[in-house]
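Task 17 of the worksheet. Students: predict the tertiary structure of the chain below and write it out as structure tokens. Keep your answer in the requested format; marks are given for formatting as well as content.
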Amino acid sequence: MKKIVLSLAVIGGLVFTSCKKDAAQENLDNKLDSITEQAKDTLNEIKEEVAETVESLESKIKEAEEELKKAVTVEEKQAATKKLNDAKAALATLKGEAISTAEEVKQEATAAANKAGAAAKNTVKNAEKKVEKAKEEIKTKTITVKDGAIKKAENKAVLTSDDLKTR
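Model answer:
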């Protein structure tokens, strides 16, 4: 009876370990979803900022081009050209920064996802090892129980045959 209870406890442990394996996969999925959402949110914020700033700079460029067309004196032309060049430089810088920031966000998200994946793999491997160990323990306990039952039956059979001989 004790052996049966012990075997049931080990089986319960196996089921629990199996559930932990499922939970690890679910945790990984949740972490990856969270990382993806954070990256998307950050990129959307950057996109909005860049869009607003790009529109502003493009309007400054158009304004400077109009001023350059209307300029009559050399000083007016130089001022309009400077304003136009500054706006164009700012636009180029902004685009470069936006690309750089997007790449950084992508790299951070990829690194975080890889880290979460590695952690989940380790958890799953550890759970699998525990399951295998528990299986071996059950096998050993089962063999021990069988051997004990066989020995008892043999002993009983020997005792019964001895009793029959003495009668």
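Marker's comment: Residues 24 and 120 are 6 Å apart (CA to CA). The chain has a mean pLDDT of 75.
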